Prior knowledge:
- By secondary structure, this protein is mainly beta.
- 7% of the residues lie in helices and 29% in strands.
- The protein contains two helices and ten strands, in the order H-E-E-E-E-E-H-E-E-E-E-E.
- The longest helix has 7 residues, at 20-26.
Amino acid sequence: xxxxxxxxxxxxxxxxxxxxxxxxxxxxxxxxxxxxxxxxxxxxxxxxxxxxxxxxxxxxxxxxxxxxxxxxxxxxxxxxxxxxxxxxxxxxxxxxxxxxxxxxxxxxxxxxxxxxxxxxxxxxxxxxxxxxxxxxxxxxxxxxxxxxxxxxxxxxxxxxxxxxxxxxxxxxxxxxxxxxxxxxxxxxx
Length: 189
């Protein structure tokens, strides 16, 4: 059975538990649970402070039930033109409170990338949990024509993902692998 259609079964003696509310929230219209990864955590609640220039705009929202990213909207007060090769920090008018242990990732919208060459410069742009400034999408026009951003346009998408802080330990030797230090295309096409 393909992985996408297999139902998840908890392994015996699993320490992983998920609340009934989260399971109910994740059921599709037919009442079926999606394939579930036990490493996933319940989605956090993101508190949002709206700045005056975002009044009347939607908060980040998911365009479909299976969307991974929530659309971010431009809180520009006048149209913003981005010429080919130019970059712009496009305001959203929102300040996010992301819980500790999580991060926001600002990613490009595929439709804008393919149709206009508009993408996120530092994709994915990271929003740390302790950042309390305005969320802006750092866009670059890689296309051949000027792109105009209008108020309320969906300009990027936001993914909220777990972000544990790793511990780094200095050592004199590392385990060897078949790949070794091969990089930049060393595994083939």
